[in-house]
Design goal:
Elements: H1 2-13, H2 15-18, H3 20-25, E1 48-52, E2 55-56, E3 60-74, E4 91-106, H4 116-124, E5 129-135, E6 144-156, E7 164-171
Antiparallel strand pairs: 1-2, 1-5, 3-4, 4-7, 5-6, 6-7
Length: 184
């Protein structure tokens, strides 16, 4: 709890240090500006954005996307001339692929993009939502785009501390765009 309080204190006291992370979260358009945060040769997480239901996650502190594969193992007897050791290894095949997304953010009174209230209303419709993940300034060329189902949305409201919320989503069918997808 102490670490969270320190992080929240630093985040609240020094938005200019955090820079684009705070500035981009509430640009009001659901898109992004072309400003990036320099971190040398490394990509800055503040420059990778998640848009759910037509707006970026407001005051997003972090998000992650997980690409999942389910596999099936096949143990096959090796041919008679093969070494015995070959029988110890199995082959695998992919039987199912899925993508999940998770985001965490702060509740913010003046949010102009999709915060807890907006995403809770999307969840309440019981329908798939549009999801896009893209690099800042590249909102017209997302690296992940498709229909996703909101599987969980949670709010946390501790006394005398920042209110936060989380959202979890799972793909609904094959996304339009994802890493490695071959287009016809």
């Amino acid at each position: 709890m102490f670490v969270k309080s320190v992080i929240n204190h630093v985040a609240g006291m020094a938005p200019d240090i955090i820079g684009a992370n705070r500035k981009m979260a509430d640009g009001g358009t659901g898109t992004s500006s072309s400003t990036t945060t320099e971190t040398g040769d490394y990509e800055n997480g503040s420059d990778i954005l998640l848009n759910v239901g037509g707006g970026c996650i407001a005051r997003c502190s972090t998000h992650n996307i997980q690409y999942n594969s389910e596999t099936k193992e096949r143990a096959v007897k090796p041919v008679a001339t093969a070494a015995k050791k070959k029988a110890l290894f199995t082959s695998k095949g992919v039987t199912k692929m899925s993508i999940t997304a998770h985001a965490e953010g702060f509740r913010f009174y003046k949010a102009t993009e999709n915060g807890f209230e907006e995403c809770a209303a999307l969840w309440g419709k019981g329908q798939s939502v549009d999801l896009q993940a893209f690099k800042r300034g590249s909102d017209t060329a997302p690296y992940l785009k498709g229909k996703f189902v909101i599987t969980a949305i949670e709010e946390t409201n501790p006394a005398q501390d920042d209110a936060t919320w989380t959202i979890d989503l799972e793909n609904d069918g094959e996304p339009d765009t994802y890493p490695g997808k071959v287009t016809a």
